[in-house]
Every structure is written in structure tokens, then in C-alpha cells.
Amino acid sequence: MTELIIASMMTMMTAATPLMFAATGELICERSGVLNLGVEGMMLIGAVFGFATAAVTGNASLGLLAAGASGILASLIFAFLTLTMLSNQVATGLALTIFGTGLSALVGFDYVGETIDRIAAIHLPVLSDLPVVGPLLFGHDPLVYLSFILLIGVALFLNRSRWGMILKAVGDSDVSAHAIGYPVVLIRYAAVAFGGLMAGLGGGYLSLVYTPLWAENMTAGRGWIALALVVFASWRPERVLFGAILFGGITILQLNAQAAGLGIPAAFMSMLPYIATIVVLVLISRDVVRIRLNAPACLGRPFRAER
Amino acid sequence: MKKLLKLTTVMLTVLLSLGAVTQASADKLKVGFIYIGPPGDHGWTYAHDQGRLMIDNMLGDHVETTFVEGVPEGPDADRAIAKLAETGHKLIFTTSFGYMEPTLKVAKRFPDVKFEHATGYKQADNVSTYSARFYEGRYVQGQIAAKISKSGVIGYIASFPIPEVVRGINAFMLGAQSINPDMKVKVVWVYSWFDPPKEADAAKVLMDQGADIITQHTDSTAALQAAAERGIYAFGQASDMIQFAQDTQLTAILDNWGPYYVKRTVDVLMGTWSSGDTWDGMGPGMVGMAPFTNMPSDIAMMARETAESIRTGAFHPFTGPINNQAGEEVVAAGETADDGMLAGMNFYVKGVDDKLPQ
Question: Is residue B141 domain-resident?
């Protein structure tokens, strides 16, 4: 029984990792006041370029770099359109997702059915062999740890650093931040790029570690789950961790319930994360003060500096 | 192989006599294929594409083939099939179960085009159906799994709860039970033919729950790779996947569509095509087994013997007594299930650890 629980938890953590990456990035992006609905597209772009690079060079770490870099590039297209050209963020984000789906299918065409050497799980002598905590704490692939480190880093950045305060200020009142003299557009560019980097890494995790192969549309909606996750976490990084494990865990639990022969309809279980998001939205919307505290006030609003 | 050679010689003779006719008409016969996944899936679609290539190789002077890949089972299938018919394709193979209704619908609009639908059960004057008796291979796999498994639990990744898939699970279970009556099969439905991350998730979950052999009725190599990562054995699906998991694949069921595709194409060329239903197994060579690897030689020997007796018709995988999950006898001792029961199979045999989704 303990073995089943440990094994399930390990599987859940790997399922949560791509969500953690993407949601952490989107959280920073939204905290700066930019709503980027292109997460799914950026993840696919990261997944395909990461995989292609790994397949060509034979080096999965290079593939990961390419995944992050291509995510940044994709997000910069979005940033240019919405921040410089002031296009509608919702429409542009949706377009980015559609663009990413198509581009990744085109680029990935020649790589369907190829294999690469995945980034393997680490194995520390002694530590990884400890009972229970060994595999749980020391038996993952390096990216699981990276996602944790980045999430903690983002939490510290937002809550403890001056630049974190500035980022939140830009998201809450772009006009005031501009009046004080902060480069609002530049800061938002950086936040969007960080979102792109993280979405790219999340996509790369899927194609380089999770299932080391490329398949069209392989993110299968994880980008949208990451978006829901940011709302679920009410824009607080520490809650992203909880949410990612919950959202990732439910997909695994759903399969676990099936394998155990419990007879719960799979579609019902798959629906649960979204119901949870709606419930959370309703709950936080009841309390006006709490919304003001967390949701970036300028989310989705275009900003033009008065000269 | 011998069968193939014989077929080839017959075909060549036919073609030589046909030569005069086809040269007169400058246009080649256009043959179209609709695929559910990419030809690079190294599974189901890959196997169909190998069949298409056999047409190219053998009849290339008279025939031109086209394929449309990644066509979802739904309204898009309608359009894709109609598109092929509109662009002068006179023979169209639709290679997934869910294309059944779209194929029939389009076939009504194009009465002079011949359609061939894989794994379906509804025919029309210009729509034939064909399928392979994959369950014959599944029975052999079940026996191998029961011999090798230490935990006595097999993980089975299933796609959609249709008779084709249920039949496979049952055949596998019957094979496993013939070796060890207490074998357990855990089933996870992923509701997709091709979704690598989900297939991998399902494999991981099954392994988490104690399965030490994985088999699948989905199209990608993801489950095999997930098994390889944990160092347990698994079966390939639809084509030999050994290159993806050298130390993992025990064997694979091979779909060998080529000879059928060539034969049907020749039928159209000669004007002898007629609607029908073909359901061939190991005997005619439509189903094959990849080499038995990563197992002791006595188990490989047993597997070969079972496969041989199925091939010659000496043994039928669905030989009674067979009970359903409720313990009711569905096939009496000494009898074999008829094709009607097999084609519409919607119950589990006793011992399958799952409730069949309805």
C-alpha cells in the first residue's frame, strides 16, 4: 500500500511539473498587468523546438535551452503586438495559441516517430535509496527540482524584493507607476518574456522528459489548465504549488481510479479541476477586498504612456 | 512470406495481361487513404502506410496513391473523404473505426467510387469492410505475459470501449488464464487512439498499481517507453516497435495490410471489385507477430507453438468454456465463439478487473 501511495505521488509530481512551469510564468505575466492567453501555443512551440533540437544535436539539455528560448521568442511576438502596437490582449493571446498549434505541427512534421534520450532522473547515493522519502524527495528528474526552485524564487521576488513590488505596482496601477518614473512597457516586456520562457520550459518538459517524443498537439490543454491555475491560486505563487499538484494529481487519480476498477466515469474526474476553479472564482469574488488584494487591477488593459 | 511471393506472382501475371488495357488509358487509377494519426506513429497508421507503399511498389505503373493524415473521427472525416472522392480517387481506404458513418455517407454521394472501411461492420454496394483478427495475437501475448509476470498483474491501456478493443482484452485474458487461472488484468481507458502523454500517464499509473507487464490498444510508442524507463516488459502494438525499447518489447502484433490493399486495388483495375467483408487473421497472414524477444527460449517456444496452432486453424482463442464476469457461461466447453459474437463483443470474460464503460 505504501508503495502504491509513493509511486502515485511520484507520478503526480511529474504530472504537476509542466503546469508549475507554465503557471509560474503566467503568474508573473499577469501580475505585471498583461493577460497572455497564448500559454498553450507557447508550450507547443517550446515542446517542438526543444524536441527538434534534442533530436538533431542528440543533447536533451540543449533541447531544453531551445525550448525556453523559443518560448521567449513566441512571447515577444505577443508583447510587441499588445504592448507596442496596443492590440487587444485577449484576441492576440488566442491568436498566439492558434499560431503555436499550427507552427508546432509544421515544424514537428519531420520529427514524428523519432526518439531521443530523455533527461534521466537523478540518483544520489544513499539519499535516493532511503525508504519513502528517498524516491519522493531525491528521485526525480532535475526539472522537477528546477520548477520548485523557480517557483520559490518567484515567491521571494514578488513578496520580498523591491523589483517585485515594482512589478506588482505596474500591474495594479500602470499610470501611477509611470508617473513615478518606472518604465512600464519595458517591465511588462520582461514579464511577458519570463512567461514565455516558463511556458517553453513546460512544453519542453513534456517532449523531453515526460514522453520523449513529439506528437501534434501533445500539450493537450495543459496550457489552459495553467491559466486556470493562476486564477485558482488567486495570483499567489505559493498557491500555485498546491494547485499544480491538485490539478496534475486529479488527472493521475482519474487513471488510478480506473486501474483500481472503481467504476467512476473518467469524464467526471477530468472535469473536477475546472469545477474547482469555478468554485474558487466564486468564493474569491464574494469578497471584494480580497479581490483587490490579489487580482492585478490593470490586468488586460492596454497602456499608452502620456508624453 | 511464401504467401506473399505467391500473391506477387499471381499479381504480376494479372498485370502483364492487363498491361495493354491500362496503357491505353493514360490516367492512372488514383487510390486514397484516410489516416487517424501520422504515418510516423510507428503503430496503427504506420502499418496502414506500409500497406499503401506496397501498392506503390507493386502497382506503381498503374496506380497513384494519396493519403490524408491526422483526420479526426467526426465531421472533418466527411470532408476529407469527400475531398478524395472529388479529386478523382476511385478507391478510398478509410482506416479507423470512427470513419464508419462518414464513409457510408460520402459513399452514397459517389456511387462510382469504391470505399474500403477498416474495422467497421456496415457495408453498402460500394463500401466494403475489412479487419484483422488481432485477438489471435492478443491470446499469444496473454500467454507470454502470464509466464513472465511475477506480480500476476498485467496493465492494459485501452482506447475506446468498442467491440474490437473489448475482444482484444478478452483474448489477452483468456491467453493469460490458460497459463495461470489467477492472472489479473487492470484496464485503463484513455479515450483516444493517439495521445502519447496520456498513454504514458496510463502506463505509469498501471505500473504504480503493481502491473509488471504493460500492453496497449493505443497507437503510439509512449507506453512502451514508459515501461522501458521503469525496466519492465511490454508489448508493441500494430508494428514492430523494438527500436524504441530494445530491452522491453516481448513481441508485437503486426498488422499486415499490404497484400489485402494490393488485391483490392487489382480488383478495381480489373473491374472485379465487389462489396464484401473480410476478416483475416494469422492464417492468411494479415496478422503477424514480431520476433519473441527478451524472454527465455522455452517461453518463446510456447508462444511460437500457440501462434502456429492458431495460424493453421487447429486452435481458436475463444474456445469454451468461457464465462462472463457474472460467471454465466457464454461459450460452452468445446465450442468456439462465432464471428457474430466476436464482432459485437460487449462483455468482459471472467477475471478482468474492470467495469466495462457503457
Answer: yes
Could you tell me the three cell numbers for B230? 521503469
Q: How far apart, in whole angstroms, are the C-alpha atoms of residue A252 and residue A11?
A: 7
Angstrom distances, CA of residue A139 to CA of A125, A145, B259: 11, 10, 49
- Residue B356 is assigned to a structural domain of this protein: no
Amino acid, res. B60: G
Peptide bond into B284 cis (omega under 30): no
Contact yes or no for A44/A104 (Cβ under 8 A) = yes
| DSSP-derived 3-state class of residue B61 | coil
Q: Which residues pair with B91 in a beta bridge?
A: B31, B114
pLDDT tier at A199, thresholds 50, 70, 90: very high
Quote the CA–CA distance of A48 and A232 in Å, as a whole number: 28
pTM equals 0.83
Compute the CA torsion angle A181, A185, A190, A191 (nearest 10 deg): 100
Band of residue B14 on the pLDDT scale cut at 50, 70, 90: low
Over residues B252-265, mean pLDDT? 95
B14, B56: one domain: yes
Mean pLDDT of A276-300: 76
Question: Pairing state of beta strands B322-323 and B329-331?
Answer: antiparallel
Chain A, residues 261-290, CB within 8 A of chain B, namely: 261, 263, 265-266
Is B106 inside a domain boundary? yes
For chain A, the domains span 2-116+125-294
- Grid cell of B189 as nine digits: 481507458
8 A C-beta contact, residue B95 and residue B32: no
Which residue among B194, B195, B208 places its CB closest to the CB of A4?
Answer: B208
Report how far apart, in Å, the C-alpha atoms of B112 and of each of B34, B54, B89, B90, B115 are. 18, 24, 10, 7, 10
Integer Cα distance of B48 and A90 in angstroms: 42
The span from the CA of B205 to the CA of B230, in Å, is 12
| Set of cell numbers at residue B200 | 504514458
CATH number for the domain running over A2-116+125-294: 1.10.3470
How many angstroms separate the CA atoms of A303 and A260, rounded? 53
Work out how many domains chain B is built from and give that number: 2
Q: Which are the contacts of B259, defined by CB distance < 8 A and separation ≥ 6? A: B3, B4, B7, B54, B284, B285, B286
Could you list the residue range(s) of the whole structural domain that residue B167 is in?
Answer: 134-254+288-350
Q: Is the pLDDT of residue B233 over 50?
A: yes
- Candidate from A210, A260, A263 with C-beta closest to B197: A210
Strand partners, B33: B67, B93
| pLDDT-based confidence at residue A292 (cuts at 50, 70, 90) | low
Start-to-end C-alpha separation, chain A: 67
Residues B203, B77 share a domain: no
Nearest Cβ partner for A259 among B41, B186, B197:
B186
Partners of A15 on chain B (C-beta within 8 Å) are 201
Strands B89-94 and B63-68: unpaired
Q: What is the CATH number of the domain that holds B10?
A: 3.40.50.2300
**A8 near B CB under 8 A:** yes
- Type of residue found at B113: V
Residues B95, B194: contact at Cβ < 8 Å? no
Residue with cell 505585471: A32
- B235 plus B93 within the same structural domain: no
Q: At what angle do helices A39-57 and A184-205 cross, to 10 degrees?
A: 60
